[in-house]
Design brief:
Chain B: Pfam families: ABC_tran (PF00005). Chain B: This is ATP-binding cassette domain-containing protein. The complex is a heterodimer of chains A (about 270) and B (about 575). Chain A is mainly alpha-helical. Chain A folds into two domains: about 15-150 and about 240-270, no CATH class; about 155-225, no CATH class. Chain A contains ten helices and two strands. In chain A, strand 1 and strand 2 (about 110) form a beta hairpin. Chain A is flat, with a radius of gyration of 24 Å. The two termini of chain A are about 40 Å apart. Chain B has about 575 residues and is α/β, with parallel strands linked by helices. Chain B has three domains: about 5-250, Rossmann fold, CATH 3.40.50.300; about 250-285 and about 545-575, no CATH class; about 305-545, P-loop containing nucleotide triphosphate hydrolases (Rossmann fold, 3-Layer(aba) Sandwich), CATH 3.40.50.300. Helices cover about 35% and strands about 20% of the residues of chain B. Chain B contains 22 helices and 19 strands. The interface between A and B is large, with 49 and 68 residues.
Chain lengths: ~270, ~575
């Protein structure tokens, strides 16, 4: 969402001024840990935590505030139901919370509160991970991330800036895909339904798209070569990406708060 | 040594990997500081390849074999990397989209100097100077994607200037631009050329725009051999016949003057710009009467021909139901047998209008009837029997693995029996000169063949109406001419043709009527001669084609003011 342009979703706020890597280093371990959790309380706590960090730390437009406060919870609720439907009642303990509550019934099959809770837990994990990803995603530009990777992590600049240039292909290909779809409609192909027809249609789309992508990439590469990209071992960094004390404080603070939160939730539930 | 050569080519031959012959083939060339050189030649002569050799992209980045020597400021390009040579030769390419690598105009112009490891202060200073020179400094914080095509090409020029190189090479910098963009780019180039700070090597087909700013013309023949090298006027006018025979497109004004000479009008010296031609015509004491404009196929007042296409209150949105309106309430009727050109700057709504007429886009409002059907409602088979649509890039519409398969798919859609299909496919292949390529993959055809195949697939189901979206875009004059001749032939045989295009001289020479669009609205439709003589072209932000520009302002020969098309020039003696 921030790959293009030098603007981010956030208009300002303390998170904007942090190093791009700090905003990744803080949340990423928590995101990984959340993948392995079960139950509702932990992901719920971290979803709320991440939302608070975002709302306090970044100046967001009304649209994005609504996404965080209503959109993501609504997504979790809906995803919870659709995951819950696939839960096998037999695998749940008979006394699981909500197993007496029947939400829907279709012949023999019952959708119980317990099933919904299992699905909801999974959905909440996804919601929490999305919100944690927003902490950097909504407040960092692609260029800032590349600069931090090149300057702090010593990632080769040829790689970083080429990736940045490649990001500019995305909208172009979106547009191109639209044209190719329209052209195939006009030619009257891709009318059959079913998986095989779908596969054939996708391959049919891929050929012209790939041909054009390769040609475009070659041209961009020539244009970059012609402007001395890759000629030297380093290049001038006009904007210096700094790792300041506040970045260290943010990362350590984020970890510390997360650990305390984790411990508090675990003990409260037990 | 102020006059040491910046570029020195000795016996340069370049053979692309897999190619049989070398083009260019044995070119010697010296470019000195401040020179503005135009490199000309017919398609396939290797002039773009030669341009790529000037900063070492050939042989370092492009798989090709280089014989002879290219010296850049005394450095042999074979022994130095492109990165080093980039400080001495900067390059601007044809496709403005494929040169942007960063997210703001300022970053874009800084990109090159940053790669050269210049100190930040100097990077910024160069960027500011370059952006100011092309008139984009105020927009430095914008995303390049928000610029027009002409704006992006000016940005590419600024990015090249910021390299600080004494030589600037431009490879067909205006081939992908609309007339307004071409003017923008040439305004910048004219300024650069008059500053004399840079040597400029320009590869360009559009001689009408380039002729008055270059001092020297270098011409390659079809085999890639150097056939002329000298001052612009000397080469373009002194050897005009020879160049025309080589397939090089001379400026329209020069060609028109040559034709007039054949009819006995002494025009000396030969003009190379419309203004010069106009002045020469005015200076002539008498001119033969121009020929009548070709009679319009539909005579005014004849009710005989009912419209083949009619659109009423047509509005079109882009990008779905909530997208912006890009065509507003168009009223248009196209009689059967018409050759209608739709003109307008980029973003005027030409493509959207055409796509709605052909059923590619559903209209947001209004009624359309085309060749007896409602194109938005009809199924693909019915539609392709009525309307053939050709996309701007023919590759987008190829769906089969062979050329014959492409044509056959269109027949299979109609449910034609297999035995019958083969005969139709064979005759279509023959008609479009593709018989030898029948079993090849469509993507492996040449540009001209691809275009012909796309027209063939659009017509094989028997559609009486052919709609083309900028069929000449990004092509050189020779290919554009071939295509227009093909359309001319189809139109003469009865196919109704609607084509969007930027090339107003082609419009003047071939279209029977012109529709002018600006900002999504149809400014007007009328017979070509009337539209070109009226104010609509300028209202739409377009420029008159070269011949019209020369004749519009004539003071002494009023009967010549309406001369806009080639066919109106008097016939040479002994013809007519």
């Amino acid at each position: 969402m921030s790959a293009l342009g030098e603007t981010t979703v956030a208009h300002g706020g303390p998170l904007r001024s942090l190093n791009a890597l700090a905003k990744l280093a803080g949340p990423v371990p928590v995101m990984i840990a959340l993948v392995f959790t079960r139950g509702v309380p932990l992901p719920l706590a971290f979803a709320v935590f991440a939302a608070l960090v975002l709302l306090v730390g970044a100046r967001l437009g009304a649209g994005w505030v609504l996404v965080i406060l209503l959109g993501v919870p609504a997504l979790a609720a809906v995803l919870g139901a659709s995951f819950g439907i696939w839960v096998d009642q037999a695998t749940l303990p008979a006394d699981a919370a909500g197993s007496q509550l029947v939400l829907a019934e279709l012949g023999d099959w019952r959708f119980t509160g317990a099933m919904y809770l299992v699905g909801f837990a999974t959905a909440l994990r996804i919601a929490a991970i999305i919100l944690l990803a927003f902490v950097s995603g909504l407040t960092t530009t692609g260029a800032e991330l590349v600069r931090a990777l090149v300057q702090q992590l010593r990632v080769p600049y040829r790689l970083g800036y080429t990736a940045l240039a490649a990001m500019r292909f995305v909208p172009r290909f979106g547009h191109e895909l639209e044209v190719i779809r329209a052209a195939r409609r006009v030619r009257g192909v891709d009318r059959d339904r079913g998986p095989i027809a779908w596969l054939r249609g996708t391959v049919g789309l891929a050929v012209p798209l790939l041909a054009s992508a390769i040609r475009h990439a070659e041209r961009v590469a020539l244009a970059m070569d012609a402007r001395a990209f890759g000629a030297h071992d380093s290049r001038t960094e006009r904007t210096i990406s700094r790792w300041r004390r506040r970045d260290t404080v943010f990362v350590l603070g984020f970890w510390l708060v997360s650990a305390v939160l984790w411990w508090a939730v675990e003990t409260a539930v037990a | 040594m102020p006059d040491a050569p910046l570029l020195q080519l000795e016996g340069v031959r370049i053979r692309h990997e897999g190619a049989e012959r070398a083009t260019p083939d044995g070119v010697d060339l010296v470019v000195r500081p401040g020179e503005v050189v135009l490199l000309l030649g017919p398609s396939g002569c290797g002039k773009s390849t030669l341009a790529l050799a000037l900063n070492g992209l050939v042989p370092h980045s492009v798989p090709a074999e280089l014989d002879g020597r290219v010296l850049v400021g005394g450095l042999d390009t074979r022994e130095h990397r492109v990165g080093e040579l980039a400080e001495r030769v900067a390059m601007v390419f044809q496709d403005p989209d494929a040169q942007v690598v960063t997210n703001t105009l300022l970053d874009e112009v800084c990109f090159g100097p940053e790669n050269l490891r210049l100190p930040v202060a100097e990077v910024l200073e160069r960027a500011e100077r370059a952006l100011k020179l092309v008139g984009l400094w105020e927009r430095r914080a914008d995303d390049p994607a928000r610029l027009s095509g002409g704006g992006r090409q000016r940005l590419a020029i600024a990015a090249a200037l910021a390299m600080g190189s004494p030589v600037l090479v431009l490879d067909e910098p205006t081939a992908n631009l609309d007339p307004a963009g071409i003017d923008e780019v040439y305004a910048v180039l004219r300024e650069l050329a008059s500053d004399r700070d840079h040597a400029i090597v320009l590869v360009e087909h559009n001689l009408d725009a380039a002729a008055d700013l270059v001092d020297r013309v270098v011409v390659l023949d079809a085999d890639g051999r150097l056939v002329a090298d000298g001052p612009t006027r000397e080469v373009l006018t002194g050897r005009a016949d020879e160049l025309a025979a080589l397939g090089v497109w001379l400026p329209v004004s020069t060609l028109a003057a040559l034709r007039l000479r054949e009819t006995g009008v002494a025009i000396e010296p030969l003009p190379i710009t419309p203004a010069e031609l106009g002045a020469a015509l005015d200076a002539a004491p008498t001119l033969p009467a121009p020929r009548e404009a070709a009679p319009a196929p539909v005579e005014p007042g004849s009710p005989a021909v009912p419209p083949l296409v009619s659109a009423h209150g047509l509005s079109v949105r882009r990008g779905g139901r909530r997208g912006p309106l890009v065509v507003h309430e168009v009223e248009l009727e196209v009689p059967a047998g018409d050759f209608l050109a739709v003109v307008g700057v980029n973003g005027a709504g030409k493509s959207s209008l055409l796509q709605a007429l052909a059923g590619v886009l559903a209209p947001a409002a209004g009624r359309i009837e085309a060749a007896g059907i409602d194109p938005a409602r009809a199924d693909a088979a019915t539609r392709s029997r009525a309307i053939g649509y050709v996309f701007q890039n023919p590759e987008h519409q190829f769906v089969a693995g062979t050329v014959a398969g492409e044509l056959e798919q269109a027949l299979a859609l109609q449910g034609a029996p297999e035995a019958k299909r083969a005969a139709s496919v064979a005759s279509m292949l023959e008609r479009f000169g593709l018989a030898e390529a029948a079993t090849r993959h469509p993507f492996l055809l040449s540009g001209g063949q691809k275009r012909r195949l796309s027209v063939g697939t659009a017509l094989i189901a028997g559609a009486p109406l052919l709609v083309l979206d900028e069929p000449t875009f990004g092509q050189d004059r020779e290919r554009a001419g071939e295509l227009v001749a093909l359309l001319r032939g189809l139109n003469d045989a009865g196919t109704t043709v609607i084509a969007a295009t930027h090339d107003l001289q082609l419009v003047a020479d071939h279209a029977s009527r012109v529709a002018v669009m600006a900002e999504g609205r149809l400014l007007g439709v009328g017979p070509t001669a009337e539209v070109l003589a009226g104010p609509l072209i300028e209202q739409a932000g377009l420029r008159h084609p070269p011949l019209a520009r020369a004749t519009r302002g004539l003071a002494n020969h009023p009967e010549w003011r309406a001369v806009t098309r080639w066919a109106q020039l008097p016939a040479p003696r002994g013809e007519a």
